[in-house]
Every structure is written in C-alpha cells, then in structure tokens.
Amino acid sequence: MRLGLIAVPVAFFALFFAYPVTAIVARGLQVDGVWQFGRLWDVLGESDIRHVLWFTTWQALASTALTLLIALPGAYVFARFDFPGKQILRAVVTIPFVLPTVVVGTAFLALLGRGGLLDELWGVRLDTTVWAILLAHVFFNYAVVVRTVGGLWAQLDPRQEEAARMLGASRLTAWRTVTLPALGPAVAAAALMVFLFTFTSFGVVQILGGPTFSTLEVEIYRQTSEIFDLSTAAVLTIIQFLAVGAILAVHAWTVRRRESALRLVDASVTARRPRGAGQWALLAGVLAVIVVLLLLPLAVLVQRSLDAPDFGYYRALTDADGGVFLVAPIEAIGNSLQYAVVATLIAVLIGGLAAAALTRRDAGRFVRGFDALLMLPLGVSAVTVGFGFLIALDEPPLDLRSTWILVPLAQALVGVPFVVRTMLPVLRAVDQRLREAASVLGASPWRVWREVDLPMVRRALLIAAGFAFAVSLGEFGATVFIARPDNPTLPVAVARLLGRAGELNYGQAMALSTVLMVVCAVALLVLERLRTDRTGEF
Amino acid sequence: MSNTHKRITRQRCAAVVVGLGMVGLSACGSSDSQGSDTGGSGSGSKTVTLVAHDSWAVSKDVIAAFEKQSGYKVKVLEDGDAGQAVNKAILTKDNPQGDVFFGVDNTLLSRALDNDLFQSYEPKGSDLVLPEYRADQDQHRVTPIDTGDICVNYDRAYFSEHKLAPPTSYDDLVKPAYKDLLVTENASTSSPGLGFLLGTAAKYGDDGWEDYWKKLKANGVKVVDGWEQAYNEEFSGSAGGKKAGADRPLVVSYASSPPAEVIYGDPKPTTAPTGVATGTCFRQVEYAGLLSNAENAAGGKALLDFMLTKTFQDDMPLNMFVYPVREGAQVPEEFTKFGPQAKDPETMDPAKIADNRDDWVKSWTSLVLK
Q1: pLDDT recorded at residue A309
Q2: pLDDT score of A43 more than 80
Q3: Per the structure, how many domains does chain B have?
Q4: Does A504 contact B188 at a Cβ distance shorter than 8 Å?
Q5: What is the pLDDT of residues A365-421, one digit of tens each?
Q6: Has residue B167 been placed in a domain?
Q7: What's the confidence (pLDDT) of residue B165?
C-alpha cells in the first residue's frame, strides 16, 4: 500500500529532477564517460570558492536567526490573537515570498538605498552592506515562519497550557514544557526552510550584494550561464547538494526525536482578542514590524507604478505593439494563472501522496530517507535544473523541451516540498488510534484516509495548495529558462521590461509587479476565506 | 485567440493526466507536439524556428510579410540573455531547439565557432553587408545582422547644473573632475560590462589596461552586477534612476540608450535627457547562423536571407535599438538626432577576444572587485 503511494512521487522526482540534474552534472564532470571527481579538490582549493562557501553559510545562519527572531512573535500573534483585518494581513505578509527577486531587489534598494526612508530619517544607507541582504531575507521568509509555525500553533489546544498553569507551573514553564515541544517540529521545519532559501539565495544576493558578495548559487549561475565552465559548476552543484543533504538529514533526525501526536482543535476557537497592556503592545509591535519591513517596500513599488498620469503605465500594459513582447504584457497574467493552477494540481497530488506515505511512524528507513529527498529540489540551483531539462528531456518519449507542460513541472518541483512540509506535521499529529479504530470497524485504507485524515488536514491541505500556487506564480529561476516568449509568465515579463531602457518600460515593470502582487494577494485571500468557511465541518 | 483556446484544452488534458497520476504524461506531450506548431517534424516542414536571446524583437507586419512571401511560419524561441542563449545553444547542438540562431556577438563568437554551433551558409545579400562588420569570410558560418556601441552615457541635467563638461574619452574618466561619478557592470556577468573592459583593453593594450583600471578604481568607479541595476538604479539620467534618487551621472550603457529614453519617454521629451561620451565606445556586432543539425535547413536559409533584406534591416533599429549592417538601410531619425553612432569606436578581433577574455576577466575581477 505504502509502496504504491510512494511510487508516483518517486517516479516524478526521478524523471523531472534526478535525471536532468545528473545529466547536466555529468556533462560537466565526465570525460569520455569517466567521472572526474578529482576536480572536486581542485575547485575546493581555490580561495575564491572557499570564500564563497564561507559567506554562503554564515549569511544563511544569520538570516535564519534574524527571521526566527522577528517572525516568531508574528506567528504567535496570528495564531492566538483576533484583530480586525487579520485575514487580509495574513495574505499580505505572504506576498513578498512569491515576488520575483528582481522586483524585491528594486523595492529594497528604494527603501534602504540612497534617498530611502532610512537615508532620509537618519542618513543611514544599507544598500552596500550585508544588512540589506539579511533584511531582504527576512522580508522574503517572514511568511514561511508565520504560516508554518502559526498554522500549527493556532490548532494547539490552549487548554493544555492552561491545565499546566493550574497545576502550578509558571507561565514560562508551561510554555516551555507544553507548547514548545509541540511546536518543535514546525519551528524546525520553518527554520530549515528559511535556511535552505537563504543558503541558496540568488536574486537578492546578486542585486543587493553587488559583485562583492556571492553565494554558491550565484557562483553556480555565473559558472554555468556566463563563464560556461560546466566542470566547476558541476563541482559546486555537488557541494551544494551535499551541504543541503546534510542539513536535511539533521532536520529529519530532530523531527523524529520530537514528533508526537497532538491534540488539534479548530483554529477559530483558540484566537482571542488581546488582553492587557502586554498583549496589546506585542500586537502593536508585530504590526509595526510588518508595516516597516514588509509593507513599505511593497508600497514603494505601487507608488512608482502610479507615477504617470491616468494610470498610464497600466494602460500601456494592454498595448501589444510595445515591441518587448509578441503579446501585450497583460496577457502574462492569464498565462501565469494557468501555469500556476496546473503546477498546484501536480504539487498537491505528488506532495499529498508523499506526505500520506510518510505519515506512519513505523515507516522504514527508505521511506524516511525519501522525506529528506523531497526537499532537495529547493537546494539545487534553478539554472542547473533549467539546463538539465534542456539536455535531458529532449528525446522521445520525453521530448518535453518545447511543450508548455515543462513550466508547471518545474514550478511543481519547487511546490512539492511546501506541500509535504505543511502537511506532514499535521498528518503526523493525527492520533494513530483514530485510524486504527476506523480500520477495526471495517473501513478500507482509502476510507480511513478520507474520513479520519482528510477532515483533520483539510486546512493544512489548503495552506499547502495556497503556498504551491503562490510559489508557482512567482517562480522565476527555472521558468525563465523554459517559458516561451509568446507565453511569458508575470515574473518573466517583469524581468524583461526591467531589462530595457526608457521610462515607459520601467513604469510598466512596476505596474506589472503591482499586478502580480494583487493577483497573489487575491489568490491568498480567497484561500483564507475558503479556510474559515469550512471550519464548521471539523 | 485560437492560441488561447488551444492552450486551455491542452491544460485540461494535463489536468486529466495529473488526475491519473502522471501516467501517460509523455503521451500527452507528444500529441501536443504533433497537434501544434512545434519545429518541423520531418524535412518538408513549413515551420522555421529561430532561437534568439531575449532582446529579439521585430514588427509583426514584417514577420507576416516574410511568412507570406516564403510560405514558412516563423516560431521564435527566446532563450535568456545573450550569453545564456549561446551557452544553451552549444549544450543542445546535437539536437538543436531550432534552425537559426540569432544573437551571438563578437565577444562570444569564437566560443560558438569553436563548438561547431553553425553550418556554412552565405545568405543572399551578404555582399551588401558593410565590410567592417563581416566575419568568418572563409567558411561563412555566421552572418552579421546588427551592430551597436557600448559607451558611457551621461546625465545632461547633472553636467549642466554643475557647469561641468561631460567626459568624452576614456582618459577623461580617470580625471579628478569626474571622481565618484561612473557606474559600470561586472565584466564577468554582464555583456556591456565586458564590452567596456574590452574597450579599455583595445585602447590601452595588453599591458596598459590594468593600470587604467587602477586609476579608474582610485577615481571611485562603482561596479554593480548587471545593466538593469546600473542603469535603472544607479544612473541619475534614466527614468528609473530619477525615481530611485540615483546619484551617478555616468553609466556604461549603449549608444542607443538616449534614443530609447526619448522614444519610451512619457511624455516624450523633445531632447534626450542623456548623451553619449563618444570616445568611450566599443563596437559590438551581432551575428546569426544556420544551426548544425537544423531540421528545417531550407527554411533557416530563407530566414537568414530575409534578415539581410532592406525590409528587415530598416525595421530592426527601433525594435532592438541597434544599427543595421546593410548598406543603404535606413537609420531612424531618433537615432541620428539623439544618439549619434560613434565615429571611431574601439574594436577587437574575435580571435583575440577568445584568447584573452577569460584571463582578462579574472585579472579584472581581482583588481577591481577584491
């Protein structure tokens, strides 16, 4: 049974991830069919490369710590407090995560660079320092922590903590011994996500770090795409792969040690209006952080997109004869939505099957290893995957190179880990005895899943789908390698408009970014509505 | 419209396929490639596929005219920026994605030729190509299509406000009057950045360019990774830079950037807000060629012929912001008015670029960035 569940995701990853990546690495490292692993030491011997490795690691650690520090209070506030506009705000804080890095880089320069807010208030400029990179990483990953940790936190029964306090535990002790262990896997999952994203950060580092700061991912891109040294690129890919694999192994180990069945309750009953000065101050603090760190950069984009009379930049988007595209830029919205829907379907199916197979605690070593394996696409450079697709998927029966399905496939690859990571903690928290009871009463495995698991994880499933959808909308790295010029996606269109001189092009890029933001916000809001409408069925 | 419709039905197909657990995905994929217009299955194909970098642009009626006259349908595959497109074409040369490749320039030409990317073909009209742009005259594997200059642009407003004459030459750029004014791009990742480096190497020679860059560095040159950032975020003369409050009035860009500022101005200004330092230019030539193993070689040849016709060469400048290479092709008024072509740009033999490019970029990186 479990083998059947897992066969589909395994085949998917073998075909659309392992095979293309191996093909491109082999192109770089094989000479006449013989692997040249000796190159590994040559490349590692270069001081430039060691410098890149060191910078990649420490900035990722720093970014992760900073993100947790800033976003965990946010997760708490979203999980436990009721306040007006909460739904909208939860959707809004997720927008940065799905925006293409070209856009975010532009927004951040406007904020932290010359003439930005900090500059005007205190004459501080951060655009050439590592702080710009760290803050942009927080900007991007805030939602990861709020959603991953907050999603579970909202469903933890607060009465358990109250019971502990009633029994004499201090507030801190109750939190430390009851809530924290229950949250552990979710915090670990979120931290791991953030670390992965920042360890493999590309656009942010390239734009905000300038040519002096370089991560492994940036270096792989340069070696592959600009310098065309496939052998060095292959070595760096392997190094990044090993590093990411090691991180995932550690993560899998910590999760296994901590996971336990949790009593989950409907999120709507756990949230209360803040009480007392302390809670109001916490809420105000979190809101202030959101405004300064997340909304301000977004507002700069909107403001710049409106910098022409009568929505001039928006009207220009419908003009097909601008010359930059074969179609009017506005059509990119339709393309993006269609691709994202297909990618979400694929990601939810593959990720859902994988999560279902991984749920059982008695899962064998193979299955547990697969858990970590599913995360690997997040740790492999988009340029590697893109180039891999190009040389691997070019022969029948897998001649997909010139078909549109390649775009959603690449996007789904990035979406699946989100689905798995969002659903797994919740699925694992379902009390196994419920399933056993259903089986004993004669339910088939399918029926057990439908009647026990599904109602309890529906929220998680929707969050997962929302994430997969949003990630697909904003996915840029791999898409830019495979999207067709007559069907550009929104991020690809933005990047191309930014790549041209002239006020109208720049304005259109800002307008299109704003449109992307709004589309994401609407999609995320719809999901928020959907969630609360259904909670009654729990 | 029919295209949209087709796409939707295809996606239903995908949804069904996904529902079945990916079984038969390849079946869907292949039926798609038969049913649609993908590049020529078989030799009698009526579709010719052009692989280009993503600055490719052409007027619709011009392509329609070619399709009508030749009977071929043109499919365009834009494949990343100039460097990426070449690299991807090389990676896929045994099973190319199209028939014709457009957009390899003189800085990367040798990489394409050394990797046997192209097969020989001398298009009709090759004799009308201005002699200074011709290349590979023995084998005719590539055909020059357009040309342009990479030059320092300056912000007119800044220099008139400060009552300072804008720089006109490489030598000017290292003078104290222009300290902390220039922003350029990383030569290892950006093609204008590389062009500017090659320009200085051509000007000051193998031994002199490093000295020049030491002086330029001492004079406060700023290096950013890509053209987009340099031009839109750092350069005070561009539309984006003005909004960003940029403070560098000199940027390495193209000779055709000032006309672009006018044409895409909103509202259109009567004079260009930026100008070109005509003594700081490096000549870039872009070539096209018939890909080795092209499926539709006949169609590819027809397309190459067409790219040298006066119709195409006249249409090109305002679409791609480049200059024509064909004798007698029209240069638009905006170009002559706002961005005159440099009279005496630096040039370099592609073979010399090939021999030195990687070493120069490496030395440049440790000299300027470290």
Answers
A1: 80
A2: yes
A3: 1
A4: no
A5: 666 667 777 778 877 888 788 888 888 888 777 777 777 888 898 889 888 887 887
A6: yes
A7: 95
Interchain CB contact of A114 with B (< 8 Å): yes
pLDDT digit string, tens, across residues A474-508: 777 777 667 666 677 888 888 777 767 677 777 88
| Residue B270 belongs to a domain | yes
Nearest to B39 by CA among B5, B13, B68, B77: B77
**Residue B15 counted as domain residue:** no
Confidence (pLDDT) at B33:
35
Q: Which residues of A touch B238 (CB under 8 A)?
A: 501, 506
CATH of the domain at A517: 1.10.3720.10
Cα separation, B61 vs B66, in Å, equals 9
Alpha-carbon Rg for chain A, nearest whole angstrom, is 23
Question: Which segments in chain B show pLDDT lower than 70?
Answer: 1-44
Residue A38, classified by CB atoms within 10 Å of its CB into exposed (0-12), middle (13-18) or buried (19+), is exposed
**How far apart, in Å, are the Cα atoms of A86 and each of A82, A252, A273, A287?**
7, 33, 11, 10
- Give me the residue label for tokens 């994203």: A197
CB contact under 8 A, A403 and B33: yes
CA A362 to chain CA mean position, Å: 29
Q: Is any Cβ of chain A less than 8 angstroms from the Cβ of B298?
A: no
Residues 144-203 of A with CB under 8 A from B: none
Say yes or no to pLDDT of A71 above 90.
yes
Residues paired with B102 in a beta bridge: B52, B288
Complex ipTM, two decimals? 0.70
CB < 8 Å to B111, chain A: 228
B76 touches chain A (CB under 8 A): yes
Could you tell me the residue range of the domain that residue B192 belongs to? Answer: 149-283+344-364
Specify which of A87-101, A282-296, B288-302 reaches the highest per-range mean pLDDT: B288-302
* Mean residue pLDDT across chain B: 84
Domain span holding position A327: 2-537
- Residues 149-168 (B) with a CB less than 8 A from some CB of A: none
Phi/psi of residue A94, each to 5°? -85, -20
Q: Is B257 on the interface with A (CB under 8 A)?
A: yes
Which carries the bigger pLDDT value, residue A124 or residue A259?
A124
Best mutation target, B11, B75, B77, to test chain A (most A CBs within 10 A): B11
Three-class HEC string of A229-277: CHHHHHHHHHHHHHHHHHHHHHHHHHHHHHCCCCCECCHHHHCECCCHH
CATH number at residue B244: 3.40.190.10
